[in-house]
Amino acid sequence: MQWPLILAGLAMGVAATPHCAVMCAAPCSALTGGDKHSTTSFQVGRLISYMLVGSLAACSVATLGVWSEAVPALRPLWTLLHLAFMGLGLWWVLTGEQPAWLRRDDTVSIIRMPGRQSPVLRAGLSGLVWAAWPCAALQAALVLAALANTPLAGAMVMGAFAVASMPGLLLAPWAWKHWQAHHGTTPSPGQLSLHGFRIAGLGLVLACGWALTHDLWQRFATWCAT
Question: Positive or negative CA dihedral for 54, 56, 58, 60?
C-alpha cells in the first residue's frame, strides 16, 4: 500500500510548484548563478537530501510500530499518530490548504560558505542541506513519508515530491510567460495548490485507513484462531 503515498507525494509536489516558484526560485538562482552545471548539482543535492529525510521519517515511525508490537503500552501512541495523520489528510481534502500551525515559511538568509569552493561544488553542498529550509510544503510531504512501511518507500515518497516540485524552481518563469502568451491569463497558483492538497489528502487518508484497518483485521484473525 505504498503507491497511494508515492502518488500523494507527487500531488503534493505539483501543489507546491507555485509555492516553490515564489519562495525558493530566487534563493536557488542566487546559489547557482543561473549556471547549468551548478543548477544540476544543486537539484541532485536537493533530491538526495529530501530522500534522506524521507527515509529517516519512515524509519522513525516504522520503529515505533515495531516497538508497539513488542510493548503493548506503545500501541495507543501508534494508533493516535495515524489518527492524527488521517485528520490532517481530511483537513487537506476539505479545505485544500495547510492548517495555520503548519505554515512556517519564514524568511531565511542564505548562508555563504567560506573559502573559494567551486561554484558547482558549492551549489551541490547547498542542495544537500536544503531539507533544512523552513518550508510548510516540505513538512507536509514528510508527514506522507513518515507513513511509509520502509525507509526505501519513505525515500521514494520524498523523491517524488522533489521531482514534482522541481519545475517550480526551473521552469516556472518560462512556463507562466508562455501560458499567458497563448491563453491571455495565467493559471491561479491558489487553484493549483487547492487541487494538489486535496489529492494528497486523499492519499494520506487512504494510507492511514489501510494501516489502521489492516492492524484491526490482523487482531481479529488472531482472536478467531484462538
Answer: negative
Entry pTM = 0.63
Q: Are 50 and 161 in contact (CB under 8 A)?
A: yes
- Compare 56 and 29 and report the one with higher pLDDT: 56
What DSSP state is assigned to residue 184? S
Amino acid occupying residue 214? H
User: What's the DSSP call for residue 188?
Assistant: P
Residue tagged 507546491 (cell numbers): 16
**Would you state the cell numbers that stand for residue 33, as one nine-digit string?**
548563478
Domain interval for residue 188: 3-225
- Cβ distance 8 to 144 under 8 Å? yes
pLDDT tens-digit series, residues 180-201:
566 665 555 565 567 667 776 7
- Report d(CA 159, CA 197) in Å as an integer: 17
User: Is the CB of residue 184 less than 8 Å from the CB of residue 33?
Assistant: no
189 exposed, middle or buried (CB, 10 Å; 0-12, 13-18, 19+)? middle
Set of cell numbers at residue 13: 509536489
The count of structural domains within the chain is 1
**Residue 152: band (very low, low, confident or very high) from pLDDT cuts 50, 70, 90:** very high
Residues 6+ apart with CB under 8 A from 182: none
Q: CB-side exposure of 82: number of CA atoms within 13 Å?
A: 25
